[in-house]
Amino acid sequence: MYKNHLKIILDFIFALLGLILLLPLFLIVMIGLALANRGNPFFFQNRPGKNGKIFKIVKFKTMTNEKDSDGKLLSDEERLTSIGSFIRKTSLDEIPQLINIIKGDMSLIGPRPLLTQYLHLYNDFQNRRHEVKPGITGWAQVNGRNAISWDKKFEYDVWYVDNCSFLIDVKILFKTLLKVIKKEGINAANAATIEPFDGE
Question: Is pTM, for the whole model, over 0.85?
């Protein structure tokens, strides 16, 4: 009942209310990033949703498009702007995804939507993360976020698929707030964001 019906209704209601309440902050961040990124405050990218269906995720753009002399993008560390670093650490870059929730592509709680280039690398167990809508935050995010291994991340994602409930979602929301306040697990051990998944 909750997983297939009530959760969808609550997602829409809370995402809409959240977007309205956060609108002043949304506009401030948008203006700041527009200045830092030469007029482009948003980042759009294809991501796999429920059952692997591709959708376009929207986030605040925290990195520039600077390239080296060969035309290749510089590393994440080099492209991450000062304001982008702050916005990423405070998770403000996730606010635009409330629009994805309103559209029905995402949920407040669920496995984070990863890159489409990883789809062919998943084994059957890992691919089960797509049995539910992806979320802005999830069980893996409150148990290590980017600081845990890929194996552990997938283990947490599939655990959520099998145990999704209203109480679990409430617990994840509260733990997410604590993580954001403490700024825990933002980065992997040796990277500005997270190491790429190589299928192993």
Answer: yes
